[in-house]
Structures are given as C-alpha cells and as structure tokens.
Amino acid sequence: MSYLAQLPLETYLLAEQAVPMPCLVCDYENCCSASRCRNCQSPMSLAHNVRSLKRKPHFVAVIGASGAGKTVYLGLLMDLLTRHVGLMRTTARGPLSISLQQTTTTALATGWFPEKTVANPEHWHWVHGQFNCRRKRRPLELVIPDISGEALATETDRANRYPAIRALLAKCAAVVVLADAELLQAGDHTHDFVTLKLLSLMGELRDEQTRGWMQARIERRPLALILTKSDRCDGLQENPREFAEAHATALWADCRSRFPRHEVFACSATGATGLRDCFGRRQSVPLRIEPHGILEPFGWLMTELDENWNKPGLAARLCGARS
Questions:
Q1: What pairing do the DSSP bridges indicate for beta strands 58-63 and 140-146?
Q2: Is the same domain home to 186 and 37?
Q3: What's the total number of domains in the chain?
Q4: Can you give the residue range of the structural domain that contains 106?
Q5: What distance in Å separates the CA atoms of residue 65 and residue 213, rounded to the nearest whole number?
Q6: What is the pTM of this model?
C-alpha cells in the first residue's frame, strides 16, 4: 500500500538565499548566510544591521603603528561611553561590538595590558553603535574598527594584502591618528613612517574613488592626532600642540597639510605603570587605571562629523557645486 503526502514547496525561501548581500566595508557581494565577507573577511553582521536599520553608518579610521595604544584607547572609550560618562553615550549594535570593550577592561582589571591585535582579519574588532550627545538632537551611526598595526604597515608595502584596510581608508568620514608620545620624546621616529604612508595612501584613494559632492565632503573630514601615554611625558597633558610641534614635526605637519580640519590631543589610560617578569622577559603592566583625555578627542570628532554630514543646507550647497 502506498501513502501519498502533499508538502508545500516554499521556494521563496530559496529565492531569499539567492539574493546577494554586499559587504558594508568593500561592497563585495556575498551569500546571505555568510558570516564573513569572502573578499575582506569583515563580519557580515554589519551589513545585516544596516539592512534592518535602513541607515548607513559612517566609518572612523583609527590608524597608527603597532604598540601605539589603539586597542587600549578604543576599549576604554567604549567602556566610558557605555557607562554614560560625560555628555556622550552609545548603544552597541550586536554582540560583536562589545567584544573590544570586554577584552580591554578584563585585561586591565587583571593587571595586564590587552594583547596586541593580530594581523589576521578574523580577529579584528568591529564596533558598530549609535553614538549620541546630549547637546545634539540627531545621533550618529558609526563603525570603528580596531585593526592590527602590523596589518596597516603591511598594506602600505603590499597593496591589496588586506582589502578591508584599503576600503576603510577610502570610505572613512573621520580619521584618528595615534602616536606613542614616549617614543617621540625619546627621539624615536621609526613608527612615524607607517602613519605617513597611510596618510599618503588615503590621499591617493580620495583622488581615485571620490567625485563631485562626495569628494567635497571627503576633503572636509576631520583628523584627530592623539598622543598616547601622556602620563609618562612631562607637560604633554597641559599643551599637546606644543609637544607635537617640538617632537612630532613631520607627522604633525603632514596631518595639517592633508586635513584642514585637525586637532591634537593627549591621552593616557594609566596613572602609573611598572615592569613585571613574564616568562623570562620584563613586560610593562598597569599599576593604576586613571583614564585621561579619552572622551575629548571623540567628542571633538562627533561635533565635526555632525557639522560635515548633518549640517542643514550643506548637501544642497555641495550638490550645487557639483552641477
């Protein structure tokens, strides 16, 4: 005896899976079920969040040599914003946006600095959140990645080794440059060459990929030069601009020439540091966590971004210049 059964064919589910989803970073088309982009290895959750929000975020590029303090700065920044310290606050979009905060605060709480970000793109942190200031009515949707300093240096020497870096530098609406103030005061400028190469690459990408009114906005994007580890340099926290002019002449001059809207800041994550023996070598560890100058650079960037992208009438003037 044979039994017959009728099953509905839900072919619309197959049609949804067949529709490609472009990567938010490099615009490469991927399958809807992909967890990472096949081209740049950035998380596809960013694209899914944007599709649900129906609002495209702005990218903030954080560049600097390996060891400049990018992971510590971004992790503490997200921790302060999440706790609503000051006038600014943030709401994370997805669990991946909290990983950087968790990694940084956990390491500092146990008496260690977080490990350096590895060059593998799968281990980079991508922070996507809604950033709001009480003085601004309209919040900003921002994506801030924590990219390995070694990967940034490799991309300047070997083009397209990391497609996510090149796409980020071309699309970013604001730039944060981190420099080790302790090395600068000691006269060590080897790390400056990495940042100078990245700034030069951003200029090339701007000329190649932006046209018309978008190029006008890209030329107005702000740059914040942050001198890290300011607690180890006397007088830096009181007057960071004089310190930059005296100890980072080439880097500061290049930032000013390429970005008309610029500012220099000093920040530190610790009040005191020490040395601890770790497997036969001495490693710097935090003795007292005292964040200083963490929120000020980001607050300045939010103000500049709000004026550049959300200012009433700006888009009409730029479109008029395009015609």
A1: parallel
A2: no
A3: 2
A4: 57-322
A5: 32
A6: 0.86
Does any domain span residue 9?
no
Bridge partner list, 274: 285
Residue in this structure with the two tokens 């005191």, named with its chain if needed: 272
Same domain, 42 and 184: no
Mean pLDDT across 45-70:
90
Half-sphere exposure of residue 84: CA atoms within 13 angstroms, side-chain side: 2
Instruction: Give the number of C-alpha atoms closer than 13 A to the C-alpha of residue 81, restricted to the C-beta side.
Output: 30
Give mean pLDDT, residues 272-279: 82
The verdict on 173 and 261 lying in the same domain is yes
Element (H, E) at 273: strand 268-278
The answer to whether residues 50 and 66 belong to one domain is: no
Whether 307 has a pLDDT exceeding 90, the answer reads no
Please check whether residue 290 lies inside any domain of the structure: yes
Q: Can you tell me the distance from the alpha carbon of 40 to that of 52, in angstroms, rounded to the nearest whole number?
A: 22
Q: Are residues 25 and 61 in the same domain?
A: no
Query: Counting runs of H as helices and runs of E as strands, what totals does the chain give?
Result: 13, 11
236, part of any domain? yes
* Residue 258: Cβ within 10 Å count: 16
| Tokens, residue 40 | 């740049």
Distance in angstroms between the alpha carbons of the first and the last residue of the chain: 76
Same domain, 44 and 158: no
In the block, residue with structure tokens 């096949």: 38
Mean pLDDT of the chain: 85
Whether residue 61 is found in the same domain as residue 29: no
By the 10 Å C-beta count (0-12 exposed, 13-18 middle, 19+ buried), 260 is classed as exposed
Decide if 3 is inside a domain.
no
Q: What whole-number distance in Å separates Cα of residue 79 and Cα of residue 96? A: 14
Q: What are phi and psi of 93, to 5 degrees?
A: -105, 95
Burial class (CB in 10 A: 0-12, 13-18, 19+), 146: buried
Tell me if 63 sits within 8 A of 152, measured CB to CB: yes
